[in-house]
């Protein structure tokens, strides 16, 4: 009996995760564009954390920059984000795509840095 109850609860949870808790807004940002937006926000925030003078010197506000780039406003972004958050399966897909892109960017950047260090004769062996 407990096993049946457990199976029913698990089925309910799996099905509930795929259904939105709210209606999609009229101007819903596509999944792909939302992924691009979150990727850009992550990159710009990383720059801001590592080298805040870069954004300050160019008078760049992260969200204003992103909204202008994608032709959206804060309301459209928030409504779309809330909608995707109400569908955990979609939200996870979006964030997984962002994470995958960030990892690829990190790996390619690390390879470039390593190649330049090797080319310049600056290797970790020099510091042993």
pLDDT averaged residue by residue? 82
The number of helical elements comes to: 6
* End-to-end Cα distance: 65 Å
Q: Spans with pLDDT under 50 lasting ≥5 residues?
A: none
- What coarse outline follows from CA principal-axis ratios? flat
Instruction: Please provide the count of β strands.
Output: 0
Give the topology string: H per helix, E per strand.
HHHHHH
How much helical structure, as a percent, in the residues?
Answer: over 70%
> What is the SS-derived class?
mainly alpha
Give the biggest beta sheet: none
Radius of gyration: 21 Å
- Proportion of residues in extended strands: under 5%
What does this structure look like?
The protein has 128 residues and is mainly α. The chain is 74% helix and 0% strand. The chain has helices spanning 2-17, 31-50, 52-57, 62-70, 74-85, 88-119. The protein starts with a helix and ends in a 9-residue tail after the last helix.
What would you say about this model in short?
With 128 residues, the protein is an all-alpha fold.
């Amino acid at each position: 009996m407990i096993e049946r109850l457990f199976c029913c609860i698990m089925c309910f949870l799996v099905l509930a995760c795929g259904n939105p808790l709210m209606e999609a807004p009229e101007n819903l940002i596509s999944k792909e564009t939302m992924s691009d937006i979150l990727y850009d926000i992550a990159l710009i925030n990383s720059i801001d954390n590592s080298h805040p003078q870069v954004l300050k010197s160019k008078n760049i506000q992260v969200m204003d920059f992103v909204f202008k780039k994608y032709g959206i406003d804060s309301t459209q972004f928030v409504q779309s984000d809330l909608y995707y958050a109400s569908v955990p399966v979609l939200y996870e897909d979006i964030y997984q795509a962002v994470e995958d892109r960030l990892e690829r960017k990190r790996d390619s950047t690390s390879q470039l840095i390593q190649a330049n260090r090797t080319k310049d004769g600056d290797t970790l062996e020099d510091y042993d």
